[in-house]
């Protein structure tokens, strides 16, 4: 049975977005292995407190991620 962990910075995604992640990851597993995989696919969303996640030694905060999301691609 697959176990998929999604780790996020707390306060970036709302509950609806997290539920969509769970559904979409489950659907991806079903797409790879077939419908029998649906009932045994575990997806966990774990949130890390803002500022306790760092990239290149620089702490990432929810505010920094939200600012990056609003920048043009």
Automatic annotation (TrEMBL):
The keyword Isomerase applies. Residues 2-62 form the 4-oxalocrotonate tautomerase-like domain. InterPro entries: 4-OT-like_dom, Tautomerase/MIF_sf. SUPFAM superfamilies: Tautomerase/MIF. The keyword Isomerase applies. Keywords: Isomerase. One of its GO terms (molecular function) is isomerase activity. It holds the Pfam family Tautomerase. Belongs to the 4-oxalocrotonate tautomerase family. This is 4-oxalocrotonate tautomerase.
């Amino acid at each position: 049975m697959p176990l998929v962990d999604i780790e996020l910075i707390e306060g970036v995604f709302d509950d609806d977005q997290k539920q969509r992640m769970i559904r979409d990851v489950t659907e991806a597993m079903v797409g790879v292995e077939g419908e029998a995989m649906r009932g045994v696919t575990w997806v966990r969303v774990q949130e890390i407190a803002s500022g306790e996640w760092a990239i290149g030694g620089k702490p990432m905060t929810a505010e920094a991620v939200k600012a990056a999301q609003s920048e043009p691609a």
